[in-house]
Amino acid sequence: MSTAEIEKQWTTRLRKRAHGHLPPEKLLPDTQPAYVSSWIYVFGVTTIAALVMVILSGIILALRGPQWWHSSSVGHFVNSTHLWSVEIFFFAMIVHLWGKFFMAAWRGGRSLTWVTGVVTFLTSVGTAFTGYVSQTNFDSQWISTQAKDGINATGVGSIFNVLNLGQMLMWHIVLLPLAAVILTAVHVLLVRVKGVVPPFEETNGASK
Amino acid sequence: MAFLWSLAALIPLDNYGHYIHWGVIDISVANFIVVVLMVLAFLAALFLPFPGRNRRKESR
Ligand code: HEM
C-alpha cells in the first residue's frame, strides 16, 4: 500500500484527528493551572466517583434481583448504597453546576461542555425517576400512579408508560444509565480538549 | 448494631412528612435541609483554603 493510500484510510484520518485534538499529555495532564487548586473543582470528580458507586451497586442489584434486595440484610445494604450514592451524585452535580455557572465556564468555546452537562443532568433526573418506579414496592406503585396523570397529560404516555414496570426497568437499567455514562465521558473529554476555563481577569474580556 | 437501630428510632419515619409553605414555594423539610446543605458546601468550597496551595506556589 502506498503512503498516499494509507493517508486516505479512515483509521489513519481518525487517529490523526483524535491525536490532534487530544494528545495523551492533554488527556492525562501532569499539572493544572494554579487557579484550579480550589475545593470547587473537587465537585466534578466527586460526581464521577458517586456515579461509579451508583453503577457498581446497581450491577449487584441487577445480579441478585428484587426478591433479594427486599428481603435480605445484604440486599438492603446494597439497595441503600445505591440510593445514597445517587443522593451524593445529585448533591455534588448541583454544587458543580453552581460553580460552573458563577465562573461562566462556558466561555472560550466551551459551550458544548455546558450543554453536555445540562443534558447529563436531565438524563440523570430521568434515570432517578425510572429508578423510583422500578423499586417494586408500595412506594413505587404510589409514585407511578401519581406520575401517570402528569406524564399522560404531556402526551408522552403513549410511548413512555410509567405503569409498565418492564418498560420502566429497561429504561432504568439499560437505556438511561448507558446515555448518562456516555454523556459524562463526552463531557469530561470536552473539558480535557479545551482545558479548564481561566478566571475572568485572565480572558481580557474578549472571549465570550 | 442495636445502638444504630436506637439512633434510627430518633427519626420518626411513620408520620406524614413536614412541609414548608412559603408563597408559591412548597418544599418538604427534608428537601429544604438538603438544599441548605448544598449551599453550605458551595460556600465552604469557595472560602476554605485548598490544602497544598501555598506549597505549590512556592515551587513555582
Ligand atoms: C454526571 C454529571 C457530571 C459530571 C460527572 C461532571 C464532571 C465534570 C468534571 C470532572 C469536570 C472537570 C473538573 C471540574 O471543573 O470539576 C467538569 C467540568 C465542567 N462541567 Fe461538569 N459534570 C457533570 C455535570 C455538569 C452539569 C449539570 C453542568 C452544567 C449544566 C456541567 C458543566 C460543566 C462545565 C461548563 C465544565 C467546564 C469547566 C471548565 O472548562 O473549566 N457539568 N465536569
Could you characterize what this model shows?
The complex is a heterodimer of chains A (208) and B (60). Chain A has 208 residues and is mostly helical. Chain A has one domain (39-198): Cytochrome Bc1 Complex, Chain C (Up-down Bundle). In chain A, 72% of the residues lie in helices and 0% in strands. The longest helix of chain A has 30 residues, at 73-102. By secondary structure, chain B is of the alpha+beta class. Chain B has a domain at 16-47. Helices cover 53% and strands 13% of the residues of chain B. Chain B has 3 helices and 2 strands; from the N terminus they run αββαα. Chain B has helices at residues 2-8, 29-47, 53-58, and strands at 19-22, 25-28. In chain B, a hairpin with a 2-residue loop joins β1 and β2 (25-28). The longest helix of chain B has 19 residues, at 29-47. Chain B is flat. The N and C termini of chain B lie far apart (51 Å). The model of chain B has no long low-confidence stretch (mean pLDDT 84). Classes of the chains: A mainly alpha (208), B alpha+beta (60). Chains A and B meet through α6 of A and α2 and α3 of B. Residues 41, 43-45, 47-48, 51, 93, 96-97, 100, 105-106, 110, 113-114, 117-118, 120-121, 184, 187-188, 191, 194, 196-197 of chain A line the site of protoporphyrin IX containing FE. Protoporphyrin IX containing FE binds at residues 41, 43-45, 47-48, 51, 93, 96-97, 100, 105-106, 110, 113-114, 117-118, 120-121, 184, 187-188, 191, 194, 196-197 of chain A.
